[in-house]
């Protein structure tokens, strides 16, 4: 009996340290968030390639700016510079952790700023396979998590984590995220629609490290399995710590953005 009790006592620390799938999933998300702090602001030029189900493509070019916020989600401003029919179109996003994101769209042809409804963010962004909600920074509190397993993609070890959006108007019921074990960045995200049917897959390629710390993918490819369409985002330049501040991210900046 004494030996049995001693054995149970010795097991107590092991039992107390065991994590549930929910705790492990949240831990991975928090670690990824922690490793990507401190970049301040980001300025980049991006090409968008839209491909229809027949393989025909069209190209757009964007200027993207982001501002890291300590007490809330990040801010971003995307401006289209090419082709002429979308030139000057801009979208401003204020991401929030615990409430719906704020987004405004500027349409130069109409010379007006349109606020995007909080229950309409699942719609396609400028005809692409990215939704408006995909443009927001991925704040930890925007999801609940569950660790599924360890796996590998192209020889790289990954954590496989399932996450559920807490935002009730999300276009997704759940997402399966494949997080690289070394970079703590996603290699793939599989999206399921509100009916829990396979919807889209987002793949991240050509990662590069900036400032000896921050990893960014050079290419992101979103494939819509339901329509056969896809959209590639290709980063031509990425620069950090450009001295941007909140004055560069307000509704007035939508009209003057270039």
What does this structure look like?
The protein has a 13-stranded antiparallel beta sheet with strand order 6-5-4-3-2-1-13-12-11-10-9-8-7. It is 14% helix and 46% strand. It is built from three helices and 13 strands, in the order ααβββββββββββββα. The chain has one domain (21-256): outer membrane lipoprotein receptor (LolB), chain A (Clam). With 258 residues, the chain is mainly beta. The mean pLDDT is 92.
CATH superfamily: Lipoprotein localisation LolA/LolB/LppX
Question: What is the molecular shape?
Answer: globular
Number of E-type strands: 13
Strand content: over 45%
H-E order = HHEEEEEEEEEEEEEH
Distance between the termini: 77 Å
CATH class: Mainly Beta
SS summary, helix count: 3
Give a quick rundown of the structure.
With 258 residues, the protein is mainly beta.
Record keyword descriptors for this entry.
258 residues; mainly beta; outer membrane lipoprotein receptor (LolB), chain A; 13-stranded antiparallel β-sheet
What is the topology?
Blueprint: H1 2-17, H2 21-35, E1 41-51, E2 57-67, E3 75-82, E4 90-94, E5 102-107, E6 112-115, E7 143-153, E8 156-165, E9 172-180, E10 186-193, E11 198-210, E12 214-224, E13 230-240, H3 251-256
Antiparallel strand pairs: 1-2, 1-13, 2-3, 3-4, 4-5, 5-6, 7-8, 8-9, 9-10, 10-11, 11-12, 12-13
């Amino acid at each position: 009996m004494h030996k049995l009790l001693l054995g149970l006592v010795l097991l107590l620390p092991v039992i107390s340290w065991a994590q549930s799938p929910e705790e492990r999933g949240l831990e991975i998300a928090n670690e990824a968030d922690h490793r990507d702090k401190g970049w301040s602001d980001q300025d980049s030029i991006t090409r968008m390639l839209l491909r229809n189900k027949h393989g025909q493509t069209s190209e757009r070019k964007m200027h993207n700016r982001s501002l890291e916020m300590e007490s809330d989600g990040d801010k971003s401003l995307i401006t289209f510079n090419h082709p002429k029919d979308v030139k000057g179109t801009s979208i401003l996003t204020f991401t929030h952790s615990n409430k719906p994101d704020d987004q405004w769209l500027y349409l130069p042809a109409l010379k007006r700023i349109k606020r995007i409804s909080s229950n309409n963010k699942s719609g396609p962004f400028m005809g692409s396979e990215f939704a408006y909600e995909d443009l927001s920074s991925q704040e930890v509190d925007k999801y609940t998590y569950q660790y599924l397993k360890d796996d590998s993609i192209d020889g790289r070890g990954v954590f496989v984590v399932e996450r559920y959006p807490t935002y009730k108007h999300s276009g997704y019921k759940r997402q399966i995220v494949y997080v690289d074990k070394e970079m703590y960045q996603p290699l793939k995200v599989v999206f399921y629609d509100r009916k829990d049917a396979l919807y889209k897959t987002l793949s991240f390629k050509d990662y590069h490290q900036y400032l000896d710390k921050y990893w960014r993918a050079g290419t992101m490819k979103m494939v819509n399995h339901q329509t056969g369409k896809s959209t590639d985002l290709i980063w031509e330049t990425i620069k950090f710590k450009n001295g941007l501040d909140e004055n560069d991210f307000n509704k007035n900046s939508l009209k003057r953005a270039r």
